[in-house]
């Protein structure tokens, strides 16, 4: 069974933990402790294939935990959560991108990222313009969905599609690695056979 590690990041009040629990437990948990970092394991079935997920619900504080650094360096994807009703939570997503690039010394655009605009059910209180989310999404090459942890709208679909994208990206990397190794082996065989002659 394929296994992937995903970090869920978001400012306190963005609905980060509520989205994580909505996906895992199919219920809305309004009262959660945003200062506690939790790690969950689950199995999902996508395209008739079981996939193991380890999900880190990051505490959202200023300091980077050892676990989050490990997820940045060895994880397979990042979910950035912001509230559509809170511009600060949206702008904070940029900070996570910078932290990822500093810790890993890699371009975030090359890493699977899912951007989730939460609280879609509060459209009348929206203060994050659609244009800003689209610009940010394009710049970091992220998948983007607007969701509601309260109603569950789009939560499962967004995360399942993201897991599928992660699987496809890493399957392609494995294929490329396999092809490179085979090319090296065949080149070595040709050189070795010439030397024997």
| Through-space gap between termini | 46 Å
Helix/strand-derived category reads alpha/beta
Taking all residues together, what is the mean pLDDT? 89
Spatial arrangement of strands, main beta sheet: 2-3-1-4-5-6
The CATH topology is Rossmann fold
**Element string (H = helix, E = strand):** EHEEHEHEHEH
The count of helical stretches stands at 5
Q: Specify the helix fraction band.
A: 40-55%
Supply the number of structural domains: 1
User: What is the annotated CATH architecture?
Assistant: 3-Layer(aba) Sandwich
Q: Give the overall shape, derived from the CA principal axes.
A: globular
Q: Are there runs of 5+ residues with pLDDT below 50, and where?
A: none
Strand segment count: 6
Oligomer: single chain
CATH domain class name: Alpha Beta
GO molecular function: GTP binding; GTPase activity
Keywords: GTP-binding, Nucleotide-binding
Biased composition (Basic residues): 182-197
GO biological process, one term: signal transduction
Using brief descriptors, characterize the structure shown.
single chain; Small_GTPase_Ras-type; Rossmann fold; Small_GTPase; 197 residues; globular; alpha/beta; six-stranded mixed beta sheet; P-loop_NTPase
Q: Can you characterise this structure?
A:
46% of the residues lie in helices and 22% in strands. It has 197 residues and is an alpha/beta fold. The protein has a single domain (2-196), classed as 3-Layer(aba) Sandwich (Rossmann fold), CATH 3.40.50.300. A six-stranded mixed β-sheet has the order 2-3-1-4-5-6, with helices on both faces. Helix 3 (87-104) links the parallel strand 4 and strand 5 (113-118). The mean pLDDT is 89. InterPro entries: P-loop_NTPase, Small_GTP-bd, Small_GTPase, Small_GTPase_Ras-type. Residues 182-197 have a biased composition (Basic residues).
């Amino acid at each position: 069974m394929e296994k992937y590690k995903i970090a869920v990041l978001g400012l306190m009040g963005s609905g980060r933990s509520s989205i994580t629990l909505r996906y895992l437990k199919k219920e809305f948990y309004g009262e959660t402790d945003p200062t506690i970092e939790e790690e969950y394991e689950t199995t999902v079935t996508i395209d008739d294939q079981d996939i193991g997920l380890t999900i880190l619900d990051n505490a959202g504080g200023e300091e980077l935990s050892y676990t989050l650094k490990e997820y940045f360096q060895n994880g397979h994807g990042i979910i950035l959560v912001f509230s559509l009703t809170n511009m600060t939570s949206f702008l904070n997503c940029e900070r996570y991108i910078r932290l990822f690039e500093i810790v890993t010394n890699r371009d975030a655009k090359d890493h699977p990222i899912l951007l989730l605009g939460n609280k879609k059910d509060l459209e009348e209180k929206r203060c994050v313009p659609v244009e800003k989310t689209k610009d940010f999404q394009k710049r970091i090459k992220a998948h983007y969905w607007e969701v509601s942890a309260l109603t569950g709208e789009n939560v499962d679909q967004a995360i399942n599609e993201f897991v599928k994208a992660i699987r496809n990206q890493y399957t392609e990397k494995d294929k490329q690695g396999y092809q490179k190794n085979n090319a090296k082996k065949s080149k070595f065989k040709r050189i070795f056979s010439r030397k024997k002659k």
